[in-house]
Amino acid sequence: MTTELAVLDMAGTTVADDGLVVRAFTAAIASAGVSEEDSRYPGMLKYVKDTMGQSKITVFRAMLGDEAKAVAANEEFQRAYEKLVADGECAPIPGAEDVIRGLRESGVKVALTTGFAPATQRAILDALGWHDLADLVLAPGEGVRGRPYPDLVLTAAMRLEIGDVRNIAVAGDTPVDVHTGLRAGASIVAGVLTGAGKRGEFLEAGATHVLDSIRDLPDLLNPA
Fold it and tell me: What homologous superfamily is domain 5-17+91-221 in, according to CATH?
């Protein structure tokens, strides 16, 4: 198989998370009237961790059961996360930039995807200077559903004119990344152990491979 496209997750896979999602969630849920001392907080935090990788507005809708509250919480999440990024608490996973550049130099197109809103994704790209690093960046919205739907992968394939979904590799740090890749028909769907997911969770989700780091992806795509 010749890999034409690598679809790579951002936070936890190519970008270090270091607890930023949890911190932003805590601020967001506080805006909905749930403090860390509230009896509901532990269960909500567990749900956020269990749904890592999914579109955040979808997570807040499921959690709060009220559209207005979900939208407000999602907007506060974006503000809190973007402030953390602006304050310098955002860094690439070691070796990620080299991997992306190396893949593109070898003829593999690269798309960076996320469960964050487009504005949050742009804030990360701004902070890291990554706007020209990949061939394409995508976030949920404007007719593109978030994970675990296959839309992010398939939209990347269409926009980058990939001829066969079997020539796509997907890598991410959560089981939901794996579900997305499999639903899109990618031949390589790798779980990456630098973020939220564990090896057993990836295998249970059906991952074709489990990688210690995104740095291991080139060897998987181009075995000696």
Answer: HAD superfamily/HAD-like (3.40.50.1000)
